[in-house]
Amino acid sequence: MPAITEDHVTDSVADALQFISYYHPADFIRAMANAWRTEQSAAARDAMAQILVNSRMAALGRRPICQDTGVVNVTARIGVQAQLDWRRPLQDIVDDAVRRAYRNSDNPLRASVVADPFGRRGNTGDNAPAMLHVEMVAGDKVDFDVSAKGGGSENKTRFAVLNPSASVADWVVETVEKMGAGWCPPGILGIGIGGSVDKAMVMAKQALNEPIDATGLRARGPQTPEEALRLEIIDRVNALGIGAQGLGGQTTVLDVKLRSFPTHAASLPVALVPNCAATRHVHFSLDGGGPARLEAPDLSDWPELDFGDAWKDARRVDLDSLTRDQIASWQPGETLLLSGHLLTGRDAAHRRIEQMLAAGEELPVSFRDRAIYYVGPVDPVGDEIVGPAGPTTSTRMDRYSDMMLERLGVAVMMGKAERGPATVEAIARNKAAYLIAVGGAAYLVSKAIREARVLAFEDLGMEAIHEFTLKDMPVTVAVDARGSSVHESGPRMWRMPA
């Protein structure tokens, strides 16, 4: 039996990370397409259409589906009879693959991992290290699950130790209702039940790599308590009316994946890990015959979509001549096509602005009556102006809302997911607005960016303040100048009776 070498692992994992950066799993494409076909909420249907178009564009262009190209998660299941020709720890071997994949000049991926997490939080520059989990199993092969997990969905992970008599379904539904839209639904929920704290979390994360089969399961009917629980959770979560991007609609989850394990008699640990609309993972097996060969999805899996009809009545907005009176006329849920100049800035830029103001220093950029977009784009390649440039979760910027709106005079904020009550009040008080771009449509959004330049904080890399020149960038009005939020009105409209 030939040995599995370090090069086999490094080549395979590096190829897998490039592969999943631009290919959705085929089962995810089909499930999303089916949800789009049956969705009755116009706003949610448009969001899903953008996700599907973006997915096809990313596959054809071999560029990232999402600007958050994720933290690498690898599960390696090593057969106890496998012949291994390794001289280094598997962590080192996998990390070499991560560095190679994320620094690939043909398709560079965004480095999002920071070292010293409770201190300086300096970016490692290559997205290493990976989050590696190793298991010893029967057999003579080594199986790998490789995924890239974005921060928006990862940050919504939840864990609880329930009373043994408690309802897991009740806890999951209540938890999802409170999670907000920052995890970019529609997506998948991974649930781990039992074991210990760490075992439950690992099971929930690993369950996300299982095939989407909810439609087939429903057609044949559940045969185990676990399958019955999955269907109950799917139905009850979708009945909440949260919908795509939290805009209100019929589909919030495409599937719920569940694993369980024996646990202590006094405990019922439950972990919940959501996967977003940029679900990215692949499985392969190594047997010593060389690196893995990955099969690309068939382009026929994607529906043919055209935004001509969906956007023909959209309001076109010139950001360079925007007035507060124009902003006041926008309605929650309305689609806008933005053109003109836009500033960018997210966590690190906001933090530095705060520090400069506290020190009495002059800012390098004026935000007065400007629009700011919360984004950390991927580096461009070839003739690209900018790489994939989808929105980041806006709630992280809520602590800076008074500073940006009242002190600096920002007129429009853009990102994804809902804003907190204090920020919504500040938006109304300052007659501003909050817009959302579709999370999971980063490559599509980047095509609306015609020019890009760094204005300040270049040392922050992707978190520097850029100025983008736009042509018809699609966004949705999430909070209008009166403080009405589509993330409240949309789900309320589509919620089903209990």
Largest sheet: 5 strands, mixed, barrel
Report the portion of residues in β strands. 15-25%
Number of domains: 3
CATH architecture of the largest domain: Alpha-Beta Barrel
Q: Given the structure, what is the number of helices?
A: 16
What does the average pLDDT come to? 95
| Helicity level | 25-40%
CATH level 3 topology of the largest domain: fumarase
CATH C-level of the largest domain: Alpha Beta
Low-pLDDT windows of residues? none
Order of strands across the main sheet: 12-13-14-15-17
What is the H level of CATH, i.e. the homologous superfamily of the largest domain? Fe-S hydro-lyase, tartrate dehydratase beta-type, catalytic domain
How would you describe the shape? globular
CA-atom Rg in angstroms: 23 Å
Give me the count of strands.
17
**Gap between N and C termini:** 58 Å
Tell me the structural class: alpha/beta
